Amino acid sequence: MASDERIRSILRTRWHRTPRELTEVADSRWRAEVDDGPVLVTLIPVAGQARLLAGLAVAEHLAHAGFPTGRPVRAADGAVVVLVDEGVVAVVRDVPGRPLDPNDPLDQQWWGDMLGAAHRALTGFGDPRVTRLARLNPEGAHLDIAPWLRPTVLGALAAVTRLTVTDQLTYGVLHGDPAPDVFRIDPETGRTGLVDWRAAATGPLVYDLAAAVGYAGGMAAAAELIDGYLAAAPVPAEEAEAALPVLLRYRLAERLDALARAARGGGAPDWAALAATRSAIEELEEL
Question: What does the H/E/C string look like for 215-232?
Fold first, then answer.
């Protein structure tokens, strides 16, 4: 892990910017005040460089389209990322504002509207670094921690497969993880931003909607979010109605998979979270 002084040095030598203030805001992420405005500095392992470059390409495209979305700040030599001894460094513009409140109906409208507008703005955008959304692998040994776990994941995966074979879905570039804390609402301007495209991939656009609905507490709790999305997105309402329950079930299966992997990695299983996620999937199976 790099020290604050090391990050200051990288900004001075590789970006030719001298930070007046530097604050670590998350693991391996810093906010810096430089002469031309606040920026965020991210340091990741070299293995994650391809995904980082893909996300930066998406963010740069959206920024050119007028979206507040953490536009990359190129280094002094024009590079989007810089290799250092500790890994790969990227610098992006900080987007002002507060994160959205998933329980606030007005914030939900902004949430859905911004996600849908981003999907529309990315129509036709392509970059070879933005790869297809990875499918769950139901064969891993981590799914053996409970006898019901693998069949539940297999059922969700089979439902998605049927959906993609039998239904005409709208595909495009996904944010990948549109949680409320990657959106920003600026009280001074009323503008909403969407940041952190490191999970960007291509896939059915309703996957992103399902992810957001999951963060909002499920379909019953996310009516305003869904309405806001459909008003702005290139996805027909009929498609969303058919695909959303299936893809929400799949997102929950991804959560089961992540919880099982964490337990297999040495931690104690979070049985409460596993049981709650299983119950949510069973409710969707009845729809």
Answer: HHCCHHHCHHHHHHHHHH
CA atoms within 13 A on the CB side of 237: 6
Structure token pair of residue 82: 């810089």
| Other residues' Cβ atoms within 10 Å of the Cβ of residue 25 | 10
Structural domains in the chain plus CATH codes = 4-93 (3.30.200.20), 105-285 (3.90.1200.10)
Strands (E), 64-111: 81-84, 87-93
For residue range 67-118, what is the model confidence (pLDDT) as tens digits? 889 999 999 999 999 999 999 999 999 998 999 999 999 999 999 999 999 9
Q: Measure the N-to-C terminal CA separation of the chain; round to a whole number of Å.
A: 47
Contact assessment for residue 15 and residue 73, using Cβ atoms and an 8 Å cutoff: yes
Q: Give tens-digit pLDDT for 208-248.
A: 999 999 999 999 999 999 999 999 999 999 999 999 999 99
Q: How far is CA 247 from CA 2, 80, 253, 269, in A?
A: 39, 33, 10, 25
Q: What is the distance of C-alpha 169 from the center of its chain?
A: 20
Alpha-carbon distance of 236 to 229, in angstroms, equals 10
Whether 238 and 168 have beta carbons less than 8 Å apart is answered as no
Residue type, 116: G
3-state helix, strand, coil in the chain (%, to 5): 50, 15, 35
Beta bridge partners of 39: 32, 93
CA 264 – CA 270 distance, rounded (Å)? 11
d(CA 276, CA 126): 38
